[in-house]
Amino acid sequence: MKKLLTIAAACLLSFTMTACSSNNEGGQSTAPQNKLEEIQQKGKLVMAVSPDFPPFEFIDNTKSGIDQYVGADIELGKYIAEQLGVDFEIKAMDFTAVLSSVDLGNADIAISGFGWREDREESFELSHGFNKDGEASCHGFLIKKADAAKYTTLADLANATIAAQVSSLQEGYTKEQLPDAKLQQVTSLDIGVMSLETGKVDALACTCDLAKGYASANEDLVKADAEFDITYDSEHDGNVAAVQKGQTELLAKINEIIDEVNEKGLYDEWNTAAKATAKELGIKFED
Questions:
Q1: Which of 174, 192, 172 is nearest to 182 (CA)?
Q2: I want to staple 58 with a disulfide (CB 3.0 to 4.6 A). Which of 3, 54, 93, 154 is the partner?
Q3: pLDDT 10s digits, 40-89
Q4: Strand ranges, E, within the chain
Q5: Closest C-alpha among 131, 84, 139, 86 to residue 112
Q6: Is the CB of residue 72 less than 8 Å from the CB of residue 131?
Q7: Where is the signal peptide (predicted)?
Q8: pTM (2 decimals)?
Q9: What residues contact residue 230 under an 8 Å CB cut-off, 6+ apart?
Q10: Among residues 251, 231, 258, which one has the least CA distance to residue 130?
């Protein structure tokens, strides 16, 4: 599991994939007036992602190049590129660098298991929600199986040492709902699992489904009965994509595509397929 989720140095390279068509036309072109026009002129959509979060984005170590990046979010990125008529490029990086890469203009879009947060909306343009009924609707903890009876409610974790990925929703939930807990920030989820296994923390805050996935790969771990209290406004259900602040033309086009994805149920199909791939790699999500 640890080997699967670790982002190797080679995986930090960019890979380009040809979509259904290219925007490479002859003749002179005017300077792009916004990010959408820029993407159309260069003929490529660059997506930033942290591939350590199955079934959204993870690495299939039986493959290489761009094909090694798999998951429902990867498929969404491909689909957006196809609908824009451009090629698709992935830039893999630590989760903490994903949003900043968009802010700095090194990537056009960030899709990496993000949920809506007020501070994110202040700094970026956030898309309509997707995966509204999936893993994003439940957030809880991965704990040692020996502690299953100890952590059955959120109150039981009030003074625990909890690992959470930097800048994640779970980090925010831990700060808000467990203010007396000792928070240990980690840069990747596999580091959080390692900290749990070695007794450095009592729990790893993550999505409920991801906790089940980690537990399926380690018989000493289990998803805790305790879960965060999540109350969503319907506008902010599920996960979101992020683009540079002010790039409303690009956001509007992405929202059109995501609305179509939701209407057709495509994300659910991609998620199901991603879980099947994860299962082949030793990660099980369904009970």
A1: 174
A2: 54
A3: 999 999 999 999 989 999 999 999 999 999 999 999 999 999 999 999 99
A4: 14-17, 44-49, 58-59, 69-70, 87-92, 109-110, 124-126, 139-144, 161-165, 182-186, 203-207, 221-227, 242-244
A5: 131
A6: yes
A7: 1-19
A8: 0.75
A9: 137, 138, 139, 173
A10: 258
Q: How many CB atoms lie within 10 A of CB 32?
A: 13
Q: Which domains are assigned to the chain?
A: 2-133+235-280 (3.40.190.10), 139-227 (3.40.190.10)
Q: Please choose, from the candidates 245, 89, 113, the residue with its C-alpha nearest in 3D space to the C-alpha of residue 168.
A: 113
Closest by CA position to 223, among listed 180, 133, 159, 284? 284
Q: Tell me how crowded residue 107 is: count the other CB atoms within 10 A of its CB.
A: 27
Residues in the chain: 287
What letter represents residue 26's amino acid?
Answer: G
Phi, psi values for residue 89, rounded to 5°:
-125, 140
Place of tokens 């057709």: 264
pLDDT digits (tens, 9 = 90+) for 170-187: 998 999 999 999 999 998
Amino acid letter, residue 23: N
| Distance, CA of 275 to CA of 72 (rounded, Å) | 9
